[in-house]
Design a protein that fits this description.
The structure is a single chain. By secondary structure, the chain is an alpha/beta fold. The protein has two domains: 86 residues, OB fold (Dihydrolipoamide Acetyltransferase, E2P), CATH 2.40.50; 259 residues. Helix content is 24%, strand content 23%. The strands form five sheets. It has an eight-stranded parallel sheet with strand order 11-10-9-12-8-13-16-17, with helices on both faces. It is globular and about 65 Å long.
């Protein structure tokens, strides 16, 4: 059930951490505004809380505006929901025509709905429309987490300068396309050639009804040489085998295979996660590898024979032992991998995939100014997470202009 509360906007902040407050600050291209709101109470002023507003969806806010915010995630203390979300702006957002972006299609030009049959359904102009041309025969990388995107894009650009890499945002994490600071930064630096939102995700530079339509449009019409496909920031999770946003990778990989694309799965691997099920290669990735109908390529950092068991512990020291400066004393040891690891079931179905290795340069990535934190852990606290993403970018670059392995 929706948990909605009335509030007043008391402060507007620029997007991104550490920005200075401004009474009329607007979010940059990407469409998200960072706010501070004061919840209304029967006794007068209430608590002040962080909030976000998707400008393309609910319009821009100004100090003093009356808004309705969804407080559910913040009230539950969810790790990916440390803020309220503006549901509607009562002061200026009810006419559907406030602050329209001239670069976006007007509702009159749109012919499909996103988030249809919900209270925030809205019209979009879908990118699908061109004739189907198969096979596409261009590589597609599939992410498990949004936090892998920056490392993959950076490593891809180092290995294949000037080659166009586009991003398709799927479900599994945040649905608003404007919520990712990483995407804005990668677009500004030219490390991504475009950003399409597919399925329930919305607010990208182009809207696709399906992931298949987004990949086909990006690779065939927009001229991307390769694509990376994965969820927005945050991830939905229940702790169960199938109940998590990482399962969107299974659907995305099947779509890429069906389109005739060389398909790379970027493994979720960790040397610092406190949860055993995510230590080493995550159960999220193992489940997808087990359930895939066809083999795909999987990337590992060079020097790692296997992402599980004793080989993982030996490989960590070989690959990352001298690659990074010593972590701060308050961070847990980066190379500590628990000896007790759940046995990987159906190992033949995991081994059938094409496991490739690529060299990674963690110090150079650390100096790039791109994001170096995942779920509160820095690069020195979890080098393997970032190393796996960098390996994905290197292998994806190697797949440009090559045939699929036999």
């Amino acid at each position: 059930m929706l948990k909605l509360r009335p509030a007043i906007v008391v402060e507007i902040r620029r997007a991104g951490p550490g920005a200075q407050a401004s009474a009329d600050a607007r979010s940059p291209a990407g469409g998200e505004q960072r706010l501070v709101v004061e919840l209304a109470t029967d006794d007068g002023p209430g608590r002040r809380r962080e909030a976000i507003a998707d400008v393309a969806l609910v319009g821009s806010a100004q100090v003093g505006d009356e808004v309705i915010v969804n407080t559910q995630a913040l009230d539950l203390g969810l790790g990916s929901g440390g803020f309220d979300v503006v549901h509607v702006n009562l002061t200026r957002g009810l006419d559907g025509g406030h602050d329209e972006d001239p670069a976006r299609p007007t509702p009159a030009a749109s012919r499909a709905m996103k988030l249809n049959y919900t209270s925030i359904q809205h019209a979009v102009a879908p990118v699908e429309g061109e004739p189907l041309q198969l096979p596409i025969e261009r590589p597609v990388a599939v992410l498990a987490l949004h936090g892998q995107l920056a490392g993959l894009a950076w490593a891809f650009a180092q290995a294949a300068p000037g080659v166009r890499l586009g991003y398709v945002q799927t479900e599994g994490g945040a649905l608003p396309g404007g919520h990712s600071h990483t995407v804005r930064l990668l677009r500004e630096r030219g490390l991504l050639a475009g950003h399409l939102t597919a399925g329930a995700a919305f607010g990208g530079e182009g809207e696709a009804i399906t992931t298949a339509g987004a990949l086909h449009h990006g690779l065939r019409v927009l001229g991307w040489d390769a694509a990376v496909c994965g969820p927005g920031p945050g991830i939905v999770g229940s702790g169960s085998t199938l109940g998590h946003g990482g399962m969107s990778a299974l659907d995305s990989a099947h779509v890429a295979l069906a389109l005739g694309c060389q398909t790379l799965l970027v493994a979720r691997i960790s040397s610092g996660d406190e949860r055993t099920r995510h230590r080493g290669i995550s159960h999220h990735t193992l489940t997808v590898l087990d359930l895939l109908l066809e083999p795909v390529t999987v990337a590992l950092p060079a020097g790692m024979r296997s992402p599980v068991g004793a080989d993982l512990r030996a490989g960590l020291s070989a690959v990352f032992g001298g690659a990074m400066p010593s972590p701060p004393a308050q961070e847990r040891p980066a190379l500590a991998v628990e000896a007790r690891r759940p046995i990987v079931e159906r190992p033949a179905r995991i081994a059938r995939h094409d496991w490739r290795r690529a060299s990674v340069d963690l110090p150079a990535y650390a100096a790039s100014g791109l994001p170096t934190e995942t779920m509160g852990r820095g690069l020195t606290a979890d080098p393997l997470f970032f190393g796996a993403a960098l390996a994905g970018g290197g292998v994806l670059a190697e797949m440009i202009g090559t045939d699929e392995p036999e």
